[in-house]
Design a protein that fits this description.
Elements lengths: L1 E4 L17 H16 L8 H8 L4 H13 L11 E8 L5 E8 L5 E3 L4 E3 L4 H10 L7 H12 L1
Parallel strand pairs: 1-3
Antiparallel strand pairs: 2-3, 4-5
Helix pairs in contact: 3-4
Amino acid sequence: MQTIKFFILSILSIVVLSCSSSKIVQKEINQQFTDFTVDFDFKTKSVDSALNSLINLPVRQREESLVSYMSKGWMPSYNFQFKEVSYTYKNNSGKKYKIRFWVTPDYLSIGNDDDFVRMPLTPQAAQLLADQFHCALPTTKMVDEIYKKVCN
């Protein structure tokens, strides 16, 4: 059985973050995301004030602000705790592949561990975040497998 690893960013219209990793790569991912949170301090900004400042903006400006917040690490820590999803894929010729990828346990949010809100994004903003985190958007098959894993 062949193993295929993916770098995935499960950001749907309502965003889910994920990345493929082994334990070594997971450590590197944690260090990368820690770097985002060190330089940017949102402790004085509440989610309510952020949402109030975004509510009347055109979609494009709102999305730019949300991407900026998330890129700078203003997200709850659980957004950086990846969980493995794996399954066996059998192609038309009968060859089996073990597929493994990692996802966060919830949709992307802005805020911190105590004060956050899940944020829907346009596909364009989701792709921009995926690129910034060196990840990719999920395929329909991946979303189906994530759903199956959660329901079992």
